[in-house]
Amino acid sequence: MQWNSVGEFFAMGGYALYVWGSFGACAVLMIAEPFLARRRLSEVRKILARERLADELDLQQKNQ
Length: 64
Prior knowledge:
Number of helices: 2
Helix content: over 70%
Mean pLDDT: 92
Strand content: under 5%
Number of domains: 1
């Protein structure tokens, strides 16, 4: 496709809303994913730490 002006490029032949909306949604998701993954990782680490502490307390009670 050939565009004669910057305005025509951004209009994308009448499909600008679909094209730029798709790019925008993809960009938002690509930016959000690392933050969501990091938050989930910290949640899992907290859960594992609690489970480890509970196991240690159970072993201490069994040994008494």
